[in-house]
Amino acid sequence: MISDATHYSPVIYPPPCKQRNVALDWLSGIMMIKIIIMHAIMYYSIPWLNETALIMDIVLFMYMPWFFFKAGMYVKAQPLRETLPNAYSRLMVPWIIFGVLALIILSPVTIGTFDSITEWSEWVFQTTVADMAMPGNAALWFLISLFACRLIASIVPLSHMTWAYATAIIGFIAALLFHAKPPQLWDKLLMFPNIFMAVFFYASGYILHKKQYDRRVAISAAVVFMLLTILDSQRADMRTNGGMIDSPIAYSLFYPRALSAIVVINYLAHRLPTSYLKKSILSYIGRNSMAFYVIHMPLMLSCKIVLLHATDLSSSTQLIIMLATVTISLPVADILLRRYCPEALGLKRDRKSMTAPDELP
DSSP 3-state helix, strand, coil percentages of the chain (rounded to 5)? Predict the structure, then answer.
């Protein structure tokens, strides 16, 4: 008879370390600032702002692919029945809440431009379907595309490297086909093909999540990036599936060019001192960028509506007021939401640290 002392018991392993990658937080903060500046141009076209945005466009041309690549780095083997509710709470709940918020802000200045509430409602529905986001917060298309990537990663399954390569290739081919013939509905360009571009970079993030930090891989990526930049340096708008590029060759070259640039900047950021990265304000923005991402457009929209009545102020002054309001309000909104309504940001109320998971923006 086996005694209690020798009775078999399974080995209990310590939980894995969940320390955040502060280098990615730092980069995420930079990308978030680029997005805010880009969206500010929608309201005010001022020379110095346009020049700043142009420089950031050239340097950070792969900013949206970078977010999907980063998310792909954290792919886990998970059945669809678990992924679906998790992805819904983390991505679709913020999409609904901040989409409706933007629509409420926008409605007083748009309803009057239609002959009836029915026509306005029809416009809202068609715009939401076409843009993958409710009017007033177009940036939320990202959450729909990431939601699709999460589901695809469970169905495929993406955590197997063979499937990851196949998924990336299929995503590229599908995106290329839709780029050649962009789909339209109600005389509107449909944005859903960006999901296939997202799938490519999402799968690539998993494929390269470890290899990207190898110096030889980073050097090779830098060489590829420079050669491709010499061949073609056009920038593709990811939301419209490369709508800014007409040539299929230039569109195809964007993929390896953006991917190589992502590997290079991730490698370089990884080499920065951790002490600096932890203290940087950019890391704070990146660590909590979900709030910054979903709130910044409704805030800008609110400022613009209020400033419509400030006809005596110059465009430059109005822009400064808008940017100052956004700069002050975003951290405050982030803190308040994480404390009192973390679900709005895709977080769980019982989390001890109310910060967004690594794979979120």
Answer: 70, 0, 30
Each residue's pLDDT tens digit, 180-237 = 899 999 989 999 999 999 999 999 999 999 899 999 999 999 999 999 999 888 888 8
* Length reported for the chain: 361
Amino acid at 193: P
pTM over 0.85: yes
Bridge partners of residue 273, in order along the sequence: none
Beta bridge partners of 188: 185
Q: Provide DSSP, 1-56.
A: ---GGG------PPPPP----HHHHHHHHHHHHHHHHHHHTTT---HHHHHHHHHH
Query: Is the distance from CB of 334 to CB of 294 less than 8 angstroms?
Result: no
In which element (H, E) is residue 267 found?
helix 248-270
In DSSP notation, 138-191 reads GGGHHHHHHHHHHHHHHHTTTTSHHHHHHHHHHHHHHHHHHHHS--EETTEE--
Contact 358, 24 (CB under 8 A): yes
